[in-house]
Each structure stands twice: as C-alpha cells, then as structure tokens.
UniProtKB/TrEMBL annotation:
GO terms for molecular function: DNA binding. Residues 1-78 form the Core-binding (CB) domain. Coiled coil: none annotated. Pfam families: Phage_int_SAM_1, Phage_integrase. This is Site-specific recombinase XerD. Transmembrane segments: none annotated. Residues 104-288 form the Tyr recombinase domain.
Length: 288
C-alpha cells in the first residue's frame, strides 16, 4: 500500500522526507493490523487511540512527527485526513500533559571540544576523513544528510578571495536555490589535501573507509553520529553526554552567541527560518 502512495511522491520531496514518511506509515500500518483495522482510510477515533498508546512508550516529538507524516500521506494521496479532528487534538493534548513537550537537545560540539577531537585525527586516511568531517560539520552548521551531500566541486574561492562551499539542497531549500557558505582557509586546504590523498577528481567529499583502509563511496548520514561518538571516546576519558549529528549545529550556534553575534546572524548561518526553532537549540545550553 505505502509503496504505491510513496511512488507518487518521488521527486517531489527529499529522500530523507520520503524515508521518514514510509517508516512512520509502516509503524501505523503495523499497529492497525494488530487491532484489526485498516490504515487507509482511517478515522479520528482510531488515530486518537494510536496517540494514546504511543504516549505510553514514545517521546512526544516522535509522536508529533508520526502524526504529521500521516497527515501529509493522507492529504497527498487524496484520502480523508482526520489528524486535525478534535478527537485527535484532544489525544495530543492528553499526551503532552502526560509526558510533556520537551525534546532532548543534542549535546553541543563547541570549539573547545572540537579542538580536542581534532587532536585525535592522525595522518591516516581515517584520520584525514574524520578531520574533514569535524571541520565541515562545525563550520557549515549543516544537518547530517547535508554534510554528507557536499562534493569536491562545491568547494570554491569567491571573487573576494574568501573560501566557500556551495550548499545545493537543504531541508529548508527543497528546490535547489542553493546557498554559498563561507569556510576557513584551514578547512579549504584540509579538503584539498584529503582529495589528493584519495586521488579523487570529483564526487562526494566524505567517504566510507573499511577496516582494510579501502575508500568507498559517500558516507551515509547515519554514520556521522557513530563516528562522532568514536572520536569523542578517543578524546575524552569521561563522557557525560554523547555527541550526535545535531551537535555541530548546537555547538557552533552557541559559540556564535558567546562571540556576540545576534540571533538573525545565527539563523542565517544555521539555516533556521524561524526564531523559535533557533531559540530551541540555544535556550537549553546558553544558561549552563
């Protein structure tokens, strides 16, 4: 069922969005089958029950995302959409009163932590790749999938001699208007050295490397968090909070704030469109 629906979305949404839609619908479908119900079409009573049961084991952010995914699937497949029915809204309110709305924020990867992690990156291919990943993630403040999508041909020197990298697509730019992000000369040179080390002419900057030291195709977004945790363990004996893919954005935003940059500048650098979203990243950590 979901394959036929998702096929219509192909090319209209980012791959990560389609992947999330598929996963969230499959979870709903499995739940419906266990209750002897059909996932499409569905009704408000069924969705409200789904929310109530999810609130027993899942976080509120996950539940809200699943309902939002179902809303999009129902609407775009021209099926009845009961997600805004009062019964479902009340179920969401019950959920928030029971488990709250708070979303756990990623631990910030600030400049001081970055420097200590960079110190663990040796001259091996893995060490060079990890150095590029750390600097690229921190300086561009991009999401995991966007970091992995950067290509060597995106790196450039602007007419004013500023080194930069072009972001072709992002979560908030689904139609490829593009954005040029300034990067340091250190990162620019690090990328060129990495390119020479792996004898690349073009293609993705971040690559997989197997245990035999063989360089593969581009790194998957899911690998970013895993690599960060591995480097973090090498750099620190004691770890209170593990880093994740969003740690780049949180840490760099905090550093900008502490350096006196205004919220508008931070939003532009991080690609946030609303103040509420940017503040959600900053509020948890700025007072610690």
């Amino acid at each position: 069922m979901i394959d036929e629906i998702i096929k219509k979305f192909d090319g209209a949404f980012a791959e990560n969005t389609i992947r999330a839609y598929r996963s969230d619908f499959i979870q709903f479908e499995l739940w419906c089958r266990s209750k002897g119900k059909e996932p499409i079409p569905t009704d408000a009573e069924t969705l409200a029950q789904y929310v109530d049961e999810m609130s027993l084991t899942l976080k509120s952010a996950t539940i809200r995302r699943r309902i939002a995914s179902l809303c999009s699937i129902f609407k775009l497949s021209r099926n009845p959409d009961p997600t805004n029915d009062p019964e479902v809204i009340l179920a969401l309110k019950r959920m928030h009163r029971r488990i709250g709305r708070a979303q756990e924020q990623a631990a910030p990867l600030t400049r001081d932590i970055l420097e200590q992690m960079l110190a663990t990156c040796d001259g091996s291919l893995i060490g060079q790749r990890n150095r590029v990943m750390l600097l690229l993630g921190y300086e561009t403040m991009r999401r995991r999938s966007e970091i992995c999508d950067f290509k060597f041909e995106d790196v450039t020197i602007l007419p004013n001699k500023q080194t930069a990298i072009r972001l072709n697509f992002s979560k908030t730019d689904q139609y490829g208007e593009g954005k040029v992000i300034p990067i340091s000369r250190e990162l620019y040179d690090t990328i060129l050295n990495w390119k020479e080390s792996i004898a690349a002419t073009d293609g993705y900057i971040l690559r997989r490397i197997n245990r035999h030291g063989q360089v593969g195709d581009h790194l998957s977004p899911s690998s970013i968090s895993k690599l960060l945790k591995e480097i973090q363990q090498q750099a620190f004996q004691h770890i209170e909070r593990e880093l994740s893919g969003h740690s780049f954005r949180v840490g760099a935003a905090l550093d900008l704030l502490n350096d006196g940059y205004g919220l508008e500048k931070i939003m532009l650098r991080g690609g946030w469109r609303t103040e509420s979203t940017a503040l959600r990243y900053l509020r948890t950590w700025s007072e610690i």
